[in-house]
Structure prediction request, 392 residues.
Amino acid sequence: MAVADTKLRPKDFLDIDALLSDEERDIRDTVRAFVTDQVLPHVGDWFEEARIPIELAHELGKLGLLGMHLHGYGCAGASATAYGLTCMELEAGDSGVRSLVSVQGSLAMYAIHRWGSEEQKQHWIPRMAAGEAIGCFGLTEPDAGSDPGSMRTRARRDGSDWVLHGQKMWITNGSVADLAVVWARTDDGVRGFLVPRGTAGFSTQDIHRKLSLRASVSSELLLDDVRLPGDAVLPEATSLRGALSCLNEARYGIVWGAVGAARACFEAALDYSLERRQFGRPIASFQLQQQKLAEMALEVGRASLLALHLGRMKDDGRLRPEQVSMGKLANVNAALDVARTARQVLGGNGITLEYPVIRHMNNLESVVTYEGTADIHALVVGGALTGIDAFR
Prediction:
């Protein structure tokens, strides 16, 4: 059989575009256009100034990207693959932008959608989908990161009320959130609570001097005997399983997001290598640079295929948390390798914010740690392979 005479596209070497439906390509292209117009011209400044404009959430809401994979309550009910493609394009802009959407939709909104009461869903989800209310997700603590079961934040009954006391750390969107979904230990297990901004005893303080995820708000949540009404608890979540289910949703988005960061670094290196001339010729003509480009293209293609495969599995209802762990472990590590290699191709220019590479490289040093460190995900996969749990 004759091979079709198709044109090779260096930036889609494996023709992964052909594996997407027309609708999926339309969604991807819409988000890519938004990132190109609204994020890329400004994100270098946001990163340098350690800020992200909160009005960006309203624009993301107008596009229907906040909680887009949820059904009802003003959410689009998009496929898992479409949501993944959105995360990929957002993180090709910056990890901080993808984190804003991921925390809003896959952590805060998903927690309410999956574990909340009908009243909680009706009150919060439509506003959050529109970007009119921002959410955050309070699980990690100063002494409870990889082991959330050792959390110290507690909630106790006082009549019909709940009283929360404790501290949460590294909370994306914390100080700008209108609502915090806070997880606390109770006499009946780990429960989730909805804590609105302005509740007495609830305060936040931002974490400064970050050299990674600078275009993102990271905060500490302080809960000093915060009194909440009885209906502030998520009624369907009665154990740590509730919080972990939300994390699995967010990790799935990271599997795709890492591809976007890697792709942005590879494309920057490819373009630069063709333009930059040394010794009278483009540096792309030298064997060492071509080897770097080939290896980056390989990693981006491999990560893209893995993300797409997991997306199809999730849409079919077959995706397990252990497989999401493998996806995050593989794709974030691959993206880090691509970013570091791209930085070498760009030479000294690679450390400036005129190019996206050092920004992505620094961001990925956070992404490899949050939503489960690479070490923990390796142990999750190892435990699934052997049937032996290594850290419990």
In short: The mean pLDDT is 96. The two ends are 55 Å apart (CA to CA). The longest strand covers residues 161-172. DSSP finds eleven helices and eleven strands in the chain.
